[in-house]
Amino acid sequence: MTEVQAVPIEAGRRRPPPAVAVHELRKEFRRKDRKRRRLSRRTRVALDGVSFTIPRGETVAILGQNGSGKSTLVRLLSTLLLPDGGSAEILGYDVVSDSRAVRRLVNRVSVEASFFKKMSAGENLSYAARYYGMTARTTRDRIPAILERVGFPPDRRDEPMENLSRGMQQKVALARALLTSPVVLLLDEPTTGLDPRSKLEVQEFIREIRSSHDSTILLCTHDLAEAEMLAERVGILDRGQLLALETVAELKRRYGSQTLEEAFFAATGREFEAEAEEEDDDREVFA
């Protein structure tokens, strides 16, 4: 895989670190023996020596089926998992040894966004703001404005999150990301399960975050059209290995394909719609 070319800098000036730098990243999981209710000796490699860099301000999509390792990659970069090998850095901060600094630089939006379910949308956003050092005075007017921007109904802002649909919860998750203005935004299947209108709204919001906050975005998805529409480069992740990371045009040329779907098939030998038999990443296994 061709690495990003460094931009020449003046002599004596230190080259700024990339927004994301991953080197030979590896993660394994031990399976759970459901009959004996304990961990078995069998392991599965979720990520197998993955390496790439993302300069600040770029949007990169990682394309892969269930079981490819997408969610594991996002969890490692957001410090929710520890790697079994290799390294990963966010703006020069190691995700293991500098995890506290990393958490303040990134925001993760996933298909199973985490909230305090008994609290309302506004209360959850207020809590997130405090974590990032924002005062109540700063967020008093900003939170309602951001919820309005993501299309969240004003008459439901005081309802507990557990009463909201997944589409509405996902909008709150994106509002939380915009509120905290993350330097790096990690998106793990952000539009999965949404109705067509909500999906388009979320995709437009992703573009807005990029343009208005100069954020670096890593989008992990199995939506071919979404990857092609939102990202400058697209990676193909299959069975824990990153097979390529290039522009869509370069991927098509590399694999002699007319479409991104054809390129995916040429790279992996599998139809994109044929989901992997194994559950994605660590949902059915334990670290």
Describe this structure in a few short sentences:
With 287 residues, this protein is α/β, with parallel strands linked by helices. The chain has helices at residues 70-77, 99-105, 121-131, 136-139, 142-149, 166-180, 196-213, 224-230, 248-255, 260-268; strands at residues 20-33, 38-54, 59-63, 85-90, 93-94, 106-110, 184-188, 216-221, 233-238, 241-246, 285-286.
Notes on the protein architecture:
The two termini are 29 Å apart. The protein is an alpha/beta fold and 287 residues long. The chain has a domain at 20-114 and 182-286: P-loop containing nucleotide triphosphate hydrolases (Rossmann fold, 3-Layer(aba) Sandwich), CATH 3.40.50.300. The protein is 33% helix and 26% strand. A six-stranded mixed beta sheet has the order 6-7-8-3-9-10, with helices on both faces. Strands 1, 2, 4, 5 and 11 form a five-stranded antiparallel beta sheet that branches. The radius of gyration is 19 Å and the shape is globular. Strand 7, helix 7 (196-213) and strand 8 (216-221) form a beta-alpha-beta unit. The chain contains ten helices and eleven strands. Mean pLDDT is 83; it is low at 1-7 and 274-287.
